[in-house]
Amino acid sequence: MFKKQAHFTRHTNDQPVETNVGDRFPLTIKRLGINGEGIGYYKRKICFVPHALPGEIVVTEVTEANSRFLRGKIHTIRQASASRVEPRDSYADDVGGFELEHLAYPEQLKFKRDLVEQSLEKFKPRGYQHYKIRQTIGMDEPFEYRNKAQFQVRMIDGHVAAGLFKTGSHELVDLPTCAVQMPVTMKVMRQMVAIIEALEIPIYDEDQHSGIIKTLVVRVSRGTGEVQLTIITNSPKLPRKRELLAQIAEQLPEVTSVMQNINKGETPLIWGDQTVHLAGKDAITETIGDLDFRLSARAFLQLNPFQTEVLYDETAKALNLKTTENLVDAYAGIGTIGLSFARGAKQVRGMEVIEEAVADANFNAQQNDIHNASYEVGTAEELLPQWINDGFSVDALVVDPPRAGLEPELIDSILFARPAKFVYVSCNPSTLARDLVDLTEEYQVEYMQPVDMMPQTPKCEVVVKLVRR
Ligand code: SAH
After folding, report:
1. Which candidate among 90, 160, 291, 394 keeps its CA 20 to 30 Å from the CA of 70?
2. pTM of whole model > 0.85?
């Protein structure tokens, strides 16, 4: 209590804003925040309201109140936006992954471009007011695009359920349908739920620390139609394994690979370190452009195969590589970017931290008859300076980091090596803008090209062409 008063006295001119959980008030929504939530101001305090849209007046019910911000949910919509559409998934309000399903798609694309602008405004990298930010390249049909479903499995009211946790909780929402998933991933997922329930295989229980099956991962190749199923378990043993595999073979002929990943105990990570091959092949093959890619269970691949080629085409255009130039493919995954460009390069080197992915990348070079590319296990921040030290001339560089962006050590060695051609593929405008603050000491942003890899969500991918000053 005392602490709170101390807070109020710092703002002697302001009236303490006493807003409590459960309070309701009409709120005008001004804009969308980085997570796709509506933002308005109540008694001068910022208020986040998921699923509310700019221009709307919504009666907001407060769900969280503290000294810095309010969070609320829509009680009723008094004045709806002309851009509001009916979400396809009835549970779109409850779980993550559908944050923008109520917003017309052209507006989603505008929002993603705005996100890039907002992030630049926040971090203000050199010259940011003049960056050319192009219109977001979207999909013609922005549904049924995700090639991978990774669903938690729990018991709900005596039945097996597979879905996602309610936002900010560990309460599972069963997802019988999901409009952003490629249909075959949902078909396999739901059939697996039925098979597991019929065989009465024990399901993981977080409270009791008991049960076996925690998560099901279904990933489909758009190019070959092959489906890989990974069962993530709380123990190496999988009761009724033989019957389970027989049922999968009989009922799900599209499943060409069955794996088990073991992740014991309570952990925020979904995947454990040990992966066991149960049936069929031990990987699936995806095709991108005219190349084949072996894809292991734990290896990363872009989630939207329809837009992956668009993303890589934009990367290729921005890079404009010559056959006399060496390319570094940093954060390489299974080598998709570097190998797609290898025929137009002198030599390609790439690095990636997941061992299985690096093995796939080197295998993928061989199986596509590419002999000027090699991949190594390790972090970009460790290996790039080593390669430069060893005398490898980095003429061109593509970085495609996870949401956290680039490590300072990597930025230092980029600024030191100053590759003439440099493209940053970012899945997070915030860390991109942050990294540009340092990178623009030596580079200029020629343009930024947002590409929508994740329709119906606030996630935004950007290809940035950088040129030396
Ligand atoms: N370029 C690939 C993968 C991009 S995702 C594609 O288009 O498919 C980012 C990848 O970076 C993941 O595979 C992740 O395992 C890897 N990674 C994460 N941290 C890394 C680091 N510090 N150094 C190198 N790779 C890293």
Report:
1. 90
2. yes
CATH number, domain of 267, equals 2.40.50.1070
How far, in Å, is the centroid of ligand 1 from the Cα of 258?
24
Query: Looking at the structure, do residues 37 and 76 belong to the same domain, yes or no?
Result: yes
2 has a pLDDT exceeding 60: no
Cβ(300) – ligand 1 distance below 6 Å: yes
397 Cα: distance to centroid of ligand 1 (angstroms): 14
pLDDT tens-digit readout, 288-309? 999 999 999 999 999 999 999 9
Instruction: Please tell me the distance from the alpha carbon of residue 336 to that of residue 344, in angstroms, as a whole number.
Output: 14
State whether 72 and 21 are in the same domain.
Answer: yes
User: Do 127 and 164 reside in the same domain of the chain?
Assistant: no
User: CA 469, CA 466: separation in Å to the nearest integer?
Assistant: 9
219 and 164 together in one domain: yes
Angle 164-168-173 from CA coordinates, rounded to 5°: 25
How large a percentage of the chain has pLDDT more than 70? 96
Mind giving me the DSSP string for 7-27?
A: HHHHTTTSPP----TT-EEEE
Cβ–ligand 1 distance for 337 under 6 Å, the answer yes
- One domain, residues 40 and 188: no
Give the total number of structural domains in the chain: 3
Lowest mean pLDDT among 84-98, 290-304, 413-427, 448-462: 84-98
Residue 360 has pLDDT above 90, yes or no: yes
What pLDDT was estimated at residue 268? Answer: 86
Domain that holds residue 155: 148-284
CATH number for position 37: 2.40.50.140
Beta carbons of 220 and 195 less than 8 angstroms apart: no
Residues known to be catalytic = 427
Question: What amino acid occupies position 42?
Answer: Y
Q: Which two tokens stand for residue 194?
A: 């039925």
